[in-house]
C-alpha cells in the first residue's frame, strides 16, 4: 500500500455495502490491517445516522472514523464533533 495515502473515505450506500447492507468482511479486515500498518485512516461517510453506520462495523468501529448524518456528526477514536445548524437562519432572507 502507498505510504503517501493518509486517508481513504468511502460512501456506504450503494458504494461500499451491497443493497442488503453486507460487505466482504474478511477482505475488509485484510485491507484495514494493511491501511493501519502504513498509518492510513479509513473513514466511513454517509447521510445515515452514526449508530446505524457503527452497527455495520461491530468488531472495529472504534478503529474507524465516521462522517455521518450528512456531515452533522464526525467521529474518530478520540473525538466527536457535532455541528448544530440554526434552522431560523435557513429560512430568513
From TrEMBL:
SUPFAM superfamilies: HAD-like. It holds the Pfam family Hydrolase_3. Keywords: Hydrolase. GO terms for molecular function: hydrolase activity. InterPro entries: HAD-like_sf, HAD_sf. It comes from the Bacteria. This is Hydrolase (HAD superfamily). It comes from Streptococcus sinensis.
Amino acid at each position: 500500500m502507498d505510504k503517501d495515502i493518509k486517508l481513504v473515505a468511502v460512501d456506504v450506500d450503494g458504494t461500499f455495502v451491497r443493497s442488503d447492507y453486507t460487505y466482504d468482511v474478511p477482505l475488509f479486515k485484510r485491507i484495514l490491517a494493511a491501511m493501519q500498518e502504513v498509518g492510513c485512516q479509513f473513514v466511513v461517510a454517509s447521510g445515515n445516522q452514526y449508530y446505524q453506520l457503527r452497527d455495520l462495523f461491530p468488531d472495529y468501529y472504534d478503529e474507524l472514523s465516521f462522517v455521518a448524518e450528512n456531515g452533522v456528526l464526525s467521529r474518530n477514536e478520540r473525538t466527536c464533533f457535532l455541528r448544530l445548524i440554526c434552522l431560523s437562519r435557513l429560512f430568513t432572507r
